[in-house]
């Protein structure tokens, strides 16, 4: 099984400042035949279902603000919120789909306002 | 507009059974893999099961194999999860989710709470 870890567990960032969340997989999720990283990011606000933000490690879902960006390859990935807004307070999860049809999520990173 | 609406959650005793349903609308249901993902209170997300467009392939997380059964009715645009031999650790909000090409989950329902307790 591919195990996903995230760091930090939580972070507090001032409004307008950058937030960086890391995600690591226990094995590479880069599929060599198409050079794609099988990794997605989700945002979950309190009392709401998760919302897809990023797929293929760096492709923003339609309607997602461009302050959200994904990067990384292989086993190490980053979700960056370039200028934190109040509405970005949430828990963020990474998910690997390299082992499709089996999937695993990271444990989540909570983002708050400092 | 894509909508996924779960129902069927509730309180059940350990060892009991429950059947969850998910009504889909706003897209061609029969063209998509569908999944169940759960979230225990205060915890993270756990993929539970998924099913191919025609129901010919089904996959489960190890912890529910032999106890849970995923199914679908494309004529009714509905997804189901039959849960038997329920345990306290199955207590969670269960989300129905559309799996884009069986990769990532692009639409989620609001979830239905299952509580297993005596």
Please summarize what this structure is.
The complex is a heterodimer of chains A (114) and B (118). Chain A is an all-beta fold.
Structure keywords:
heterodimer, A: 114 residues, mainly beta, 7-stranded mixed β-sheet, 4-stranded antiparallel β-sheet, 0% helix, B: 118 residues, 11 strands
What fraction strand of chain B?
over 45%
Task: Name the shape of chain A in a single word.
Answer: globular
Please report the number of helical segments of chain B: 0
SSE order of chain B, as H and E?
A: EEEEEEEEEEE
Largest sheet of chain B: 7 strands, mixed
State mean pLDDT of chain A (0 to 100 scale). 97
What would you say this structure looks like, in words?
The complex is a heterodimer of chains A (114) and B (118). The mean pLDDT of chain A is 97. Chain A has strands at 4-7, 10-13, 19-25, 30-31, 36-37, 39-44, 51-55, 59-60, 68-73, 76-81, 90-96, 104-105, 109-113. Chain A is mostly beta strands. The radius of gyration of chain A is 13 Å and the shape is globular. In chain A, the strands form three sheets. In chain A, strands 2, 6, 7, 8, 11, 12 and 13 form a seven-stranded mixed β-sheet that branches. Chain A has a four-stranded antiparallel β-sheet with strand order 1-3-10-9, with no helix packed on it. A two-stranded antiparallel sheet of chain A has the order 4-5. In chain A, a hairpin with a 6-residue loop joins strand 6 and strand 7. With 118 residues, chain B is mostly beta strands. Helices cover 0% and strands 54% of the residues of chain B. Chain B has no helices and eleven strands. In chain B, the strands form two sheets. In chain B, strands 2, 4, 5, 6, 9, 10 and 11 form a seven-stranded mixed β-sheet that branches. In chain B, strands 1-3-8-7 form a four-stranded antiparallel β-sheet, with no helix packed on it. Chain A binds chain B through residues 38, 40, 42, 44, 48-52, 55, 61, 93, 95, 97, 100-108, and chain B through 33, 35, 37, 44-47, 50, 57, 59, 61, 95, 100, 102-111.
